[in-house]
């Protein structure tokens, strides 16, 4: 099978860099909308969730790396209602997409200046 | 703090068994609607996701135990589009709620006869 | 078909009130974990989303009524990053479950005193 | 305010076409992971959900159009367990992103040949 059996569905003018940017967007949209809302109580819950999010990114096509760091205040773990839930602003995510020779590194983090959880492209290039 | 600072918001006629049944329903509704859709490619992804779901259940009030088993066929992990995503029918979940002296054990699994992912109560009792 | 083909999967000691409480919990767990995160920009977006949430509750078994009110500040709709996303604390939900002769009215709303989005039972009774 | 206060967070080499492709990916990742799982029973539920998904896409930055069509078999609406839930394969989505002079039209639909819900770029161009 060719390296991308779905390539023929894309417009022929889409460059590898554009495709890699598109794939990076899909991955970050997935992270935001799939994982926010998960209840968290203990520090161990946080560590293992970071791995699950990384695995989910890497499960999808052309995502070759992912690093997730969750920055969250946990409550007093002995009180029934003092747990928290994952919010997008708690996540610091970096992913790498490789499509053909194009590489895109993209990130998701809360930008205080914008008061916005921004998904953005940190690096885009074509390998030699 | 009393064992349940939210008790006063519930109608006074709600028994401990009824409250435990309510809490069990919340937990299973959470599992279904929070976790389905997560991309999965490798067997290790599945094992760690089971733990994350168990942790999420136990993070919420009065859930004292959770056991999650995901039964899923993974594709050929080398092909880009041959991964899968978690579906409700892949989950076999058992949770235990304890509220006051009431204990409820509830489950979620696909029932072939109904062709339905059924959340149901397997055991309900009041401890001596 | 009997009124509940799934009844045999429940423990025989589960009363109709307990079952109704369980179903109410499932519905509110679904609302919290399915809908939080939806992007919203215009007042019309909010109104129609309230209806979609009500429909989703009523689609599931034994939920006979649902009323959803979303209380949310929308930003300046002309600036690209000034939209918002639905959070659980924005929702004021009331649902009614009827199972056999048992009726449960349950609610979800942010309780300031607890700083918690509480799902609770407002009324539970058996019809004559 | 400039048309994009977040532009400075992106690498300077990112073209408008690449940015538009990235934004299209975010939108389709959001659609897949936010909306699948919603319970549906009546034809009216489906119609209004299509609008909510369109509104959600258009709420986010630089998405200027969205068209969602849900193709789904509803069960016998009188039986308690015969409703359905939205799956990604039921969705036929077309979105348009405009960033600067770049326009991207992207789609999400189930591709039988791949047995995959493919997000892809149908058109990419720079306006005169």
From TrEMBL, chains A, B, C, D:
<dbReference type="InterPro" id="IPR027508">
    <property type="entry name" value="DHN_aldolase_MptD"/>
</dbReference>
<feature type="domain" description="Dihydroneopterin aldolase MtpD C-terminal">
    <location>
        <begin position="15"/>
        <end position="122"/>
    </location>
</feature>
<dbReference type="InterPro" id="IPR007181">
    <property type="entry name" value="MtpD_C"/>
</dbReference>
<protein>
    <recommendedName>
        <fullName>Dihydroneopterin aldolase</fullName>
        <ecNumber>4.1.2.25</ecNumber>
    </recommendedName>
</protein>
<dbReference type="GO" id="GO:0004150">
    <property type="term" value="F:dihydroneopterin aldolase activity"/>
</dbReference>
<dbReference type="Pfam" id="PF04038">
    <property type="entry name" value="DHNA"/>
</dbReference>
<keyword id="KW-0456">Lyase</keyword>
<comment type="function">
    <text>Catalyzes the conversion of 7,8-dihydroneopterin (H2Neo) to 6-hydroxymethyl-7,8-dihydropterin (6-HMD).</text>
</comment>
<dbReference type="InterPro" id="IPR036839">
    <property type="entry name" value="MptD_sf"/>
</dbReference>
<comment type="similarity">
    <text>Belongs to the archaeal dihydroneopterin aldolase family.</text>
</comment>
<feature type="binding site">
    <location>
        <position position="23"/>
    </location>
    <ligand>
        <name>substrate</name>
    </ligand>
</feature>
<comment type="subunit">
    <text>Homotetramer.</text>
</comment>
């Amino acid at each position: 099978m060719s390296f991308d059996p779905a390539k023929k569905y894309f417009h022929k003018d889409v460059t590898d860099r554009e495709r890699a940017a598109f794939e990076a967007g899909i991955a970050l949209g997935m992270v935001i909308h799939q994982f926010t809302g998960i209840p968290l109580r203990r520090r161990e819950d946080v560590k293992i969730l970071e791995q699950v999010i990384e695995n989910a990114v890497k499960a999808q096509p052309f995502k070759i790396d992912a690093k997730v760091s969750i920055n969250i205040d946990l409550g007093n773990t002995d009180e029934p209602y003092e747990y928290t839930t994952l919010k997008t602003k708690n996540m610091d995510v970096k992913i790498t997409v490789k499509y053909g020779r194009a590489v895109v590194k993209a990130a998701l983090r809360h930008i205080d200046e914008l008061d916005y959880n921004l998904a953005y492209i940190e690096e885009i290039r074509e390998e030699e």
